[in-house]
Design brief:
The longest helix has 20 residues, at 55-74. This protein has a single domain, classed as Rossmann fold, CATH 3.40.50.300. The protein is built from seven helices and five strands. By secondary structure, it is α/β, with parallel strands linked by helices. A five-stranded parallel sheet has the order 2-3-1-4-5, sandwiched between helices. α3 packs parallel to α4. Helix content is 50%, strand content 16%.
Length: 179
């Protein structure tokens, strides 16, 4: 992939349902824009909350993500967040963080066909044990995204194209913010 110039003070929120390919995408994007990657699955694992998808556990994970994001901002690094972000109150927390720290915010929503999601969730994954039951529950509770965002349709062979599309979106958002 073409290496893009680093964008200063960028917060990218990558969201989507389990199995959508958001983590694979978010890791690729973070590498491409030279940003720190922070994923909810890895945090959940680190916090000993694997398999615990109750709301209070989810909010604990996002609370830890929020605290780490503040620390990463102090280092001057850009950050790519990876999580379902299916609740508006959780999105609002990170939107507030971006505004209060003068971080440029870009929101990217990753979607995939349900047949592909089913295939992906049927295979073991290192940092997530979400299955179709978890997918269907989160899908039924996913609140509409009110903010401007980029929608990317995930396929098994679209990473490079999707990352390039996202980088263009981030850079165009960054240019708008500077005006």
């Amino acid at each position: 992939m073409k290496k893009y110039s680093k964008v200063a003070s960028e917060l990218v929120m990558v969201m989507g349902l389990p199995g959508s390919g958001k983590s694979y995408f978010a890791k690729g994007l973070a590498k491409e824009i030279d940003a720190v990657y922070l994923g909810s699955d890895e945090l959940r694992k680190e916090m000993g909350l694997m398999g615990n998808y109750q709301l209070d556990n989810k909010l604990s994970v996002y609370g830890e993500m929020f605290n780490r994001a503040k620390e990463i901002h102090k280092s001057g690094e850009s950050l790519v967040l990876d999580g379902t972000f299916y609740l508006q109150q959780v999105r609002d927390l990170f939107i507030f963080l971006a505004k209060s720290l003068s971080w440029n915010l870009s929101i990217i929503h990753i979607k995939a066909d349900e047949s592909l999601i089913s295939k992906r969730l049927s295979k073991p994954r290192e940092d997530s044990e979400a299955d179709m039951e978890v997918y269907l529950k989160i899908k039924s509770e996913f609140e509409p995204i009110r903010e401007a965002h980029l929608l990317i349709q995930s396929t098994d062979d679209s990473l490079q194209e999707s990352v390039e599309k996202a980088v263009k979106y981030i850079h165009s958002d960054h240019e708008k913010a500077r005006r």
